[in-house]
Structure formats: structure tokens, C-alpha cells
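lol so apparently i was supposed to do this last week
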Amino acid sequence: MSQPMDIDPGNADAPQSQSNGFQSRVPTGEEAVVMERSKVTAPLLHYIANFKSPYMNDVSCYEILKKVGQGTFGEVFKARCRTTGRKVALKRILLENELDGFPITALREVKMLQQLKHQHITELLDICSSRSANSKKGIAKFYLVFTFCDHDLAGLLSNKKMQLSLTHRKTLMKHLLTGLHQIHHSSILHRDMKAANILVTREGVLKLADFGLARPIFKVQNALFTNRVVTLWYRPPELLLGENQYGTAIDIWGAGCIMAELWTRTPIMQGNTEQKQLSLISNLCGSIVPEVWPDVVSLPYFDKFELPQNLKRKISERLGCIIQDVNAIDLIDRLMTLNPKKRGSAEEALDHTFFFTAPHPKEDVSDLMAGIHQSLFEYTERQGPHAERRKGERVQPHNGPRRVPNPPRQNTLANTDQFHDMIF
Ligand SMILES: Nc1ncnc2c1ncn2[C@@H]1O[C@H](COP(=O)(O)OP(=O)(O)O)[C@@H](O)[C@H]1O
Ligand SMILES: [Mg+2]
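anyway here it is w/ magnesium ion bound
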């Protein structure tokens, strides 16, 4: 099996120096090769190590107001800039091994965000550090500082009082696909599309967030990526079957799951093992067979999982009782195409009739936001259908060493637990 290309943080034995609260050191030869492969270049490391914010770079410049997120890798706080009063989100960067310095995966996230300035992508304002009394002597904590958004989509959908119209759904999907197109156009894969990673501002503008697993699309032929990415419930069949030469289609699948969730208000396929997830996908999208997806036979785990046979595709049948709009169903159907080569791009999705038939999408969903008087996040609203969300969280920390994918267990459908199937 090929090794995934994801990388560990730096080598603790390398010489270190302090600069501006960041640990700076010359990368080892081995690290330099890895950095080059992952596009985290020495000048970028140097830039981060010497980063001087024009107006603030110590976390004490912010007054922490409330915890709004507990991701897999750390906490996110709502905070206020003591000087300007501006509301921000502080995302703490978890240092798995503090001696390793600023984690290379966080550098990756910073680099992606710097490349991705766009109306529908979360805005990185600053990086700041702190030296708390509790932390080991001289070791800083690091935070990414973002423009604060009032809600995430998982939190919004958890709130039953919030009624979405077709116009709202069209507008949100248009924003989502526009942001995704921008990401893919910049040769980046998001790799963690899910409702909790989608923010909505109080002005009703959607922003794609959490670039902790994002990475550049390599132009190098035969470059291999780890397939242990994307939260299980939103993970496309090619990743579940071990593909490690995937592309933008993995994010498109997630967009399809999220679009359906705008109606179901809960993730549509909540498997708790890879085998179950594949079975749920087959139940909805039909059997995973070479007739609909010729290349599937060459995927590493095609023979290792039990793939249910003779199942018809039932997207319109099963979603039809919840989604009345035929164009919406048709678009979900396309986004959730089993064969990644036929799944289409974000740009193609934006051209779909769904967006060009009445009622038309609007500029934003500000009218929807006007009726919501408190911030709604997955973390704060973890009740009702979203209470169990953590089960589907992604499987590995982005700061730690990437694990080589475990070969799938030979589960049989007969011995698996009850399925979590939220539509039917
Ligand atoms: N800019 C922001 N404004 C408001 N809340 C945010 C912001 N960024 C993240 N959050 C909240 O924090 C949660 C975790 O942040 P995220 O970037 O997804 O980190 P993780 O990698 O730990 O999942 C998000 O699901 C969201 O609820
Ligand atoms: Mg997240």
C-alpha cells in the first residue's frame, strides 16, 4: 500500500531560535523535501516565524467572550478586539508537541487562507500568540484570528424555529458552490466539507471555513493523498474505497450531502463505520458496480468491503417526500453521482436550472437572519438531531502524524449494528 503524503510536524532536534513569539529554525534536509512536496516553502516558514501584525499579535489584545466551537483540534472562541471593538473568532492551534514549533499543518491552513480571499470564504485577519502562566516555560500558544460569523450551518439547521424557504436554500447553495468553485479554481481541495464548517454571517452571507485538512492539488503525476479525510458522513465512495489520487469531486459529494441537509436538517447518511457508510450510500445512490462506475474495480478496497448488490438509485424517490422542487432533486442527484469522473464541477452545478427558475436566489439571506436573535453553532446547539454529530467527526488530528490507512475490516452486513439512516 502506498504511504500517504501527509506529513508530520518538524523535527525537535533541529536548532531553534525565538523570534516574535514564534519558534524559528532552519528546516532539516528531509523536512525541506517534504515542505516542497506539500508547497509549504522555506520562505513561508520564515514569513510566519517573523510575522508582525500591523496592529496586534498578542492574544491579550482580545477579550474572550464565549466558546463557540470545539473542533477536533482545539477550541474556537468569540472575542472582541480591545482597541477596535471588532468581533473576531480565535481558533487555537493545538501544538501536539510544543517543541516542534508552529505545526506545519497550521502553516498549510494559513497559506491556503491567504490564497483564498473571497466573499464566500472565511477571512483570516491575523495570527496571534500568548504565553500563558500554565504553559511550559517559553512555549507560546498560537491562535488564528478570523472575522467572526454569527452562525454555522449545523447550528442553524438544528434550530427548528428557523424556517428556510426555497429562496433561502437556493441562495445558500449558490454561495456554497461559488466559494467551492473559488477553492478549486485556486487548485485547492477542501477535504472537510460538512455543515459545521460552513459559516453564515449576520448579514446572511455564507462562508466556507476550516482549512485544517485542505491541501493543494498536485500537478505531479501519480501524487498520492491520504484517503483518511472528510468526516465519515460526508465522505464520498471513492475515498471509502481507498482512492488516493482523488480530485475536486470529493468536495462536490460533500456539497450534495449538505444541499440535501438544507431540507432534512440533519446529515443524511450517518454511518458509524466505513462499511455502514458504504451501505447507506448504496441504499440511496444504488449499488456501487462497474456498470455505473467502470474504474471502481481498481480501487484498493473494492473487494475488501461488502458492497450491497442489485440496489436501484433512489435519490428522487427517497428525497422526493421531503424536497418538492424537482430541480433541487436533480441537482442533488448530480452532485451525488457515484462515479467521481461524472460528478461534475462546482461551476457546472452553478449553471444548473435550479438556480435559474423561480423563485430565484437572492444576494444574501439577510431576511432569514433578521429573525434570529442568538448565535447558533453546532457546539452551542448540540441537541436534537445534531446531538450525535460527534460520531461522524473526522478521524485524525491535522497536527499529528498521519496514520497509514488501516485496511478495512471484513465487516458483513449481518453483523453490523443498526444503521443510522436519517432520511428514511
Ligand atoms: N470565523 C468564525 N466565526 C464564528 N465561529 C467560527 C468561526 N470559525 C470557526 N467557528 C466555529 O468553530 C468551530 C470549529 O472551527 P473549525 O475551523 O471548523 O475547527 P476544527 O478544525 O477544530 O473543526 C466551527 O464549526 C464553527 O462553529
Ligand atoms: Mg471544523
